[in-house]
Structure formats: structure tokens, C-alpha cells
């Protein structure tokens, strides 16, 4: 899959469906040549013409046409005449930022090497992938930059990351280090990003790319609900099923920066890596620094084609452990039922009712630990409250299981309250400046996870609770962003390393808990989708998609999330009405239809349901269990966008192709009662499919090409769930 053509001085990464090509020019510079649909060879038919241009510096004094400022580069530096966005900036011991890393050599490795201490995609067999390592060297410092490229045999994706090795005698300061840089030709692209806020995460934004730079970033200590570390470029006419797509997603959970920059003479530069505003690294002689990785995807089949590659890669080669391939349980969370007013009797009564309705897991949310009466105290003291749970959490968990459901529990381990035993014992364990009162958020501080002692405390504290309760599920929350970046643990010269060291510390904690408790299903949460990123999926195979459980809002949130992440990674729950976030009243049917797009759960006091509502919930759970394998592990297709239309829809096809689930939604009633048609995707056009509701049969070609209509009704917030089975003969 990887070869070096000595005649062309070019590298090819090719799996028969996609090709990635770059070459070596002027004996030292890497020229980006092609990334897209499979080519037999890339001999320069579309290579840009070079001229002697004003303000363009010439590293080869004998060739005034050659300038780094116009060259499409694989990994551009700074201070060498390329005045576009640099991929790296290295400060030497004398305070200068002038380096010249030139091509030195390469090697090709079987499989895909792991990234020590970092989340990353992986292979189970070496033949699944090949990895190219290209070495750039700086003669003065003795340092190397190693560019890693992995291409997968069965997936249209390439993973890239960078490693810096200090082979010299003096320390280097890494000021900027992108995990990847890519120069694409032309300038006629649309840019698609996922932005938003708390309660409205992953909103799709699409606009034409113009002659300027777009910077996406987070300096919040998390990937954030405001921005997603993802850049998608498309042809202007590209839609869900047709057209070219180039996408980059960062497998990292902390501060990041993405750059999309239009060149002055055409061409677009795309970069992704850690945010230089909060990143810095002191690299001592003999040390190596490893960046997180980026996943690059190319699709010829529109945005759905792009999503299918991300979905398959992330579900099968990023998520790990026993839960990767298992269907996920239907849960009931205690939060919206009780908030902090929780006790043993209430939990057991809720668990018994959950079992009667067919649910499989009861989750004890916030409020269970000592002195936790509100959100102003007790975070960090992970010991059961003796008043609320006089018999201990072990007895509660046993009672929950005796009621007929499994036991799960909520933590927010990365935070600490001022009013807590942990803070009183270790005030130096928090992130803060020694010169100012720290800025609070949600009345809490952030623990300094760069400190190994803090990491060890969290591992042991969480382990003690999981051992006592035998919990099969953990909801891991993170409800504030990081301010006052300062560490009592790190020396002065390493304070700029805190942001990244925090993430390395968190990853170490999660890795140890994964190893100790492989049967526990961890679900990530950050006030909802504030840290729904590829990095966390390596340790937690699902994430709470948003604190906003309103069915109408969830249509948009889950639509945007699905661009990168498969339904099996999304926590989607039915909550009480009026909705806690919007006050909107939607039917139980529509709330279920929205939650059907991921891992089903319930957020309400189910003891207050009427007999009719209990019967409806029972039927919902029965239906979901029958469809769960299809919804969670099938192939997902977006059909009609809720962001652009009053009506929306999606369908999913089971792995064997025999079951199809289609959901259609209408937000507001149409006084004209017009009929909306969605065109299903992924069916066999030669097969026949029977609709479960009425037994009527349709050809797969009819459902895809003619489409499926809804039944207009005079009512707001309606939905239709259609289930089809392939018919033999």
C-alpha cells in the first residue's frame, strides 16, 4: 500500500480506492501532490506552474521560480520564506526560531505503531495497514521531525502524526507543532465545521471558502462544545450522497487549533494540532515528543460516504474493550428525577419500576457522596453519604441488581470543591496562579492532573467505589473549563506544558481504570457534549450527546454529531416534559423517535407515569431491543437535514442488510398539509422490503429512487418510525 517511486522521487499511499502522493523536490523539500480518488500514477498533470514572483524568497538562488511561499508543502516551517501558516515553530537554546528541517530519509513499517500515552486508532493484524515514516533533519540542532502516515487496507482513511526527536546537545522549545498539514490545489471549496455552545452542540456550518484564513480553536482545556476539532472541505455541489469530500479530525480531547488558509495564488492549506496559545514543550537532549494524531478521510460519495468511513474506523479501530462490539444497555438516570435529593429508598423504588418497564441499567447520578447537597460542595470526596445511604453503596448496588437491573454510577473526578475534605488536605493540587484568587466555575476548581499524585488519587478513589459496588457502568462528567493555568507541581520552565500534561494525566487515569475494570462501560460527559471527541472514545466508547434532551433540539444536535460519530457512541435519552431546557412539550412517541438515533435511555421519574404512559414506554423498550443491533451497529444514512428543513429524516441498515429503520420528523404543522418524501439509502435495489406496520411490500429501488412519504397531520412535533424487513423471493 506504500511505495517510493525513485524515478519520480515520490511517495504513494494507495489502497485501490484512495491515493495520497507527495514528493521530494530540490533534494530537501516535501511537495504535496495529490489526495483523492485512486490514481494509477501521479505524474504532475495538475501541478501548479511556478514563476519568478514579487516578494517570493528563493532558497535556491539559481532558480527564482522556486519559492516555498508558492510550493504546496507537506510540513512547512517558518522563517524560510513561506509566509503562510507554519506547521511547526522551534526555538533553539539561543532564543532564535530559525531552523531548517530538510528531507533525510524514510522507512515503511507493517501495521500501525501505537502512540505512547495518547489515544489513537489501531489495527488488530499487521496486514490491516502500513505506515510510512519520513524523516526531516536540522543540521544545526541535530533534531529530527518524523512524519508518520498510516493507510488502512479496508478504510478510506489516512492517519498522521508527528514526532520530534532532540538528537542535539541543547534543549529545544517546541512553540508550535501541528499534527498534520496538507496543501490542496485550487480554491473552489466549501468549508464545513461543527460549532455551537452548551445545550446546542455540533451545529453544522457551511460556507464558501474565500480569500482569507479561518481559525478554529479551543483554549478551554477541552475540545469544547463551541468548536469541534474537525475541518471538512467539499466541492460546492457536494451533498449527502454525491461529490468530493476531504475531512480532518483530531484524535485529542484538549486545546486545539485548526487552520484553513487560502493561498494568494490559489491552493488551500489545512492544518490541525494543539493550540499554540496554551501549548509549549521543553524538549531536552535525547528526548522525544509525540503529537496526537489526525484522521484524514476522502470520500467520492458525499458527506454520507465520509461519515461511513469515520463511523467504521471509530467504532471498530478506536473504541476498544468488551463493549466495543456489544449492544449497549437501556438505562434510567436518576438526575432529572431527583437531582441532589437522592437516597437509598428512592433509588430502589426507581430501580424496581425500571425493571418492570424492561430497562436494564439504573444509574446513580450526582448527589450520592458525603455532604453533596448542592453543586457548591464535596466534589473530590468520593465516599458515600452516610445519611442518604446508611447501608453503603455496596448494599444499594446489590438491591438494585436484586430489583432486576444493573447498577451504574456518576463521577466528576477531574474537579474539586473549595468546601471539600480533598481541597482542605491538598490545596496545592488545583490548577491556579499563586498570585490571584482563582476564577471559579460552577463553584469548583480543576485538579492538576499533570501531578502524578493527583492521578494516583483519582485512580484509587474511583477504583474503591467500583470495587465496592461492582458497577457495570460509569458516567464520567466534566462540568467546567480550565482557567488560571498554573501548576504547583511543574517547575517554571514547564508551566506552558500544563495544558497538554493535563490531558496526558487524564489519559493515564482512564487507561489504568480501563485495565482494572475492563467490563465497565464508561460513558463520557462534559455538561453534555462538551468533550464529545475522538480522543475520549478510545477510553469511553460512548458519550452523552447533550444536556439538551428536547426532542426538537436533539434532531439538529444528533445530525451534526453523526457527521463524525456513529449512533453506537451517542447517548440519547427520553426525558420528562415540559422539557427542562426549553419548556417544550412533545409527545412520548416523538421523544422516543429522537432518542432512537443512538443508545436509548430515560431521564425522568418513571414512578409518576400514568398506566397508559407506562404501557407506551414498555412498548418503546420492546421495539428498541428488537432494533438495537441494527441501530447501534448498522450503517447510518442522513436523508433530510433538520437544520435546513421543517421536515427531516434518516435511515439505518443492519449489517446483514435485512432490516431497515427509517425515522421521519416534522417540527411544525403545515397548514397546506404538503407531503414530504425522503429517499432511503443503502438498500438493495433488486430486493423487496415489507413494512412492519401494515405488511405492504416495496422494492428497494422504489424506496430509494421514488422515496417514502409521510402522512401530514395537523399537529406540531410529530414523527414516524418505519421498519422494513427484506423479503425472500
Key structural traits:
729 residues; alpha+beta; Beta-galactosidase, Chain A, domain 5; TIM Barrel; Immunoglobulin-like; eight-stranded parallel beta barrel
Describe the structure.
The chain is α+β, with helices and mostly antiparallel strands and 729 residues long. It folds into 3 domains: 2-182 and 277-317, Distorted Sandwich (Beta-galactosidase, Chain A, domain 5); 322-631, TIM Barrel, CATH 3.20.20; 647-727, Golgi alpha-mannosidase II (Immunoglobulin-like), CATH 2.60.40.1180. It is built from 12 helices and 38 strands. Strands 6, 7, 8, 9, 11, 12, 14, 15, 19 and 20 form a 10-stranded antiparallel β-sheet that branches. Helix 3 runs parallel beside helix 4 (392-403) and helix 6 runs parallel beside helix 7 (498-516). The longest helix is centred in the last third of the chain and has 23 residues, at 611-633. The protein is globular, with a radius of gyration of 27 Å. The two termini are 41 Å apart. The model has no long low-confidence stretch (mean pLDDT 97).
Amino acid at each position: 500500500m506504500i511505495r517510493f517511486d525513485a524515478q519520480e522521487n515520490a511517495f504513494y499511499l494507495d489502497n485501490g480506492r484512495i491515493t495520497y502522493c507527495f514528493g521530494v523536490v530540490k533534494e530537501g523539500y516535501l511537495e504535496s501532490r495529490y489526495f483523492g480518488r485512486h490514481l494509477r500514477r501521479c505524474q504532475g498533470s495538475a501541478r501548479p506552474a511556478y514563476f519568478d514572483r514579487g516578494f517570493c524568497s528563493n532558497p535556491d538562488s539559481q532558480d527564482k521560480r522556486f519559492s516555498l511561499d508558492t510550493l504546496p508543502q507537506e510540513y512547512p516551517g517558518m522563517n524560510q520564506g513561506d509566509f503562510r501558516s507554519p506547521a511547526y515553530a522551534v526555538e533553539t537554546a539561543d532564543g532564535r526560531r530559525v531552523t531548517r528541517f530538510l528531507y533525510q530519509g524514510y522507512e515503511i513499517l507493517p501495521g500501525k505503531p501505537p502512540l505512547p500515552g495518547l489515544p489513537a486508532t489501531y489495527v488488530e493484524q499487521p496486514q490491516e495497514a502500513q505506515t510510512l515514516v519520513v524523516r526531516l533533519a536540522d543540521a544545526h540542532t541535530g533534531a529530527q521531525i518524523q512524519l508518520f502516515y498510516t493507510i488502512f487496507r479496508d478504510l478510506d482513511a489516512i492517519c498522521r502524526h508527528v514526532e520530534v526527536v532532540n538528537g542535539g546537545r541543547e534543549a529545544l522549545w517546541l512553540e508550535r507543532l501541528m499534527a498534520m498539514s496538507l496543501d490542496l490545489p485550487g480554491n473552489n471549496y466549501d468549508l464545513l465545521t461543527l460549532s455551537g455552545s452548551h445545550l446546542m452542540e455540533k451545529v453544522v456550518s457551511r460556507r464558501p471558502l474565500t480569500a482569507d484564513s479561518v481559525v478554529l480553536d479551543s483554549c478551554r482545556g477541552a475540545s469544547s462544545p463551541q468548536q469541534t476539532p474537525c475541518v471538512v472541505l467539499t466541492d460546492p455541489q457536494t451533498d449527502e450522497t454525491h461529490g468530493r469530500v476531504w475531512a480532518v479530525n483530531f484524535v485529542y480531547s484538549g486545546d486545539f487549533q485548526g487552520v484553513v488558509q487560502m493561498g494568494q495564488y490559489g491552493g488551500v492549506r489545512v492544518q490541525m494540532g494543539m493550540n499554540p496559545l496554551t501549548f509549549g514543550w521543553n524538549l531536552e537532549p535525547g528526548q522525544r515528543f509525540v503529537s496526537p494524531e489526525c484522521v484524514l478521510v476522502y470520500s467520492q460519495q458525499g458527506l454520507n460516504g465520509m461519515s461511513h468511513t469515520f463511523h467504521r474506523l471509530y467504532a471498530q479501530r478506536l473504541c476498544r474493550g468488551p463493549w466495543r462490539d456489544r449492544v449497549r444497555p437501556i438505562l434510567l438516570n436518576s438526575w432529572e428525577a431527583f437531582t441532589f435529593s437522592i437516597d437509598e429508598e428512592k433509588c430502589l423504588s426507581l430501580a424496581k419500576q425500571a425493571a418492570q418497564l424492561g430497562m436494564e441499567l439504573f444509574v446513580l447520578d450526582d448527589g450520592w457522596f458525603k455532604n453533596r447537597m448542592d453543586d457548591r460542595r464535596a466534589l473530590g470526596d468520593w465516599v458515600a453519604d452516610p445519611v442518604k445511604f446508611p447501608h453503603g453503596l455496596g448494599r444499594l448496588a446489590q438491591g438494585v441488581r436484586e430489583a432486576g437491573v444493573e447498577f451504574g454510577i456518576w463521577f466528576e473526578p477531574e474537579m474539586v470543591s473549595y468546601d471539600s475534605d480533598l481541597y482542605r488536605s491538598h490545596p496545592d493540587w488545583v490548577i491556579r496562579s499563586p498570585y490571584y484568587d482563582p476564577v471559579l466555575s460552577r463553584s469548583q476548581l480543576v485538579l492538576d492532573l499533570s501531578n502524578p499524585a493527583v492521578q494516583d488519587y483519582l485512580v484509587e478513589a474511583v477504583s474503591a467505589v467500583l470495587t465496592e459496588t461492582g458497577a457495570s457502568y460509569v458516567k464520567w462528567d466534566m462540568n467546567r473549563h480550565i482557567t488560571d493555568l498554573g501548576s504547583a507541581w511543574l517547575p517554571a520552565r514547564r508551566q506552558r506544558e500544563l495544558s497538554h500534561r493535563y490531558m496526558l494525566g487524564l489519559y493515564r487515569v482512564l487507561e489504568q481504570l480501563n485495565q482494572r475494570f475492563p467490563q465497565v462501560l464508561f460513558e463520557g460527559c462534559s455538561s453534555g457534549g462538551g468533550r464529545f471527541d475522538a480522543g475520549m472514545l478510545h477510553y469511553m466508547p460512548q458519550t452523552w450527546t447533550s444536556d439538551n434532551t428536547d426532542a426538537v433540539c436533539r434532531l439538529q444536535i444528533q445530525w451534526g454529531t453523526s457527521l463524525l460519530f456513529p449512533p453506537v457512541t451517542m447517548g440519547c435519552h427520553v426525558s420528562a416534559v415540559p422539557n427542562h431546557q426549553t419548556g417544550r412539550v412533545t409527545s412520548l412517541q416523538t421523544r422516543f423517535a429522537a432518542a432512537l438515533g443512538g443508545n436509548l435511555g430515560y431521564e425522568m421519574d418513571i414512578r409518576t407515569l400514568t398506566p397508559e404512559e407506562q404501557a407506551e414506554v414498555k412498548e418503546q423498550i420492546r421495539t428498541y431491543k428488537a432494533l438495537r443491533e441494527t441501530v447501534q451497529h448498522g450503517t447510518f444514512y442522513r436523508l433530510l437535514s433538520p437544520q435546513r428543513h421543517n421536515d427531516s429524516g434518516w435511515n439505518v441498515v443492519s449489517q446483514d442488510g435485512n432490516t431497515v429503520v427509517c425515522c421521519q420528523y416534522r417540527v411544525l404543522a403545515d397548514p397546506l398539509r404538503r407531503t414530504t418524501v425522503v429517499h432511503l439509502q443503502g438498500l438493495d435495489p433488486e430486493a423487496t422490503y415489507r413494512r412492519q406496520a401494515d405488511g405492504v411490500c416495496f422494492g428497494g429501488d422504489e424506496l430509494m429512487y421514488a422515496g417514502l412519504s409521510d402522512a401530514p397531520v395537523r399537529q406540531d412535533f410529530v414523527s414516524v418510525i418505519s421498519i422494513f424487513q427484506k423479503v425472500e423471493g
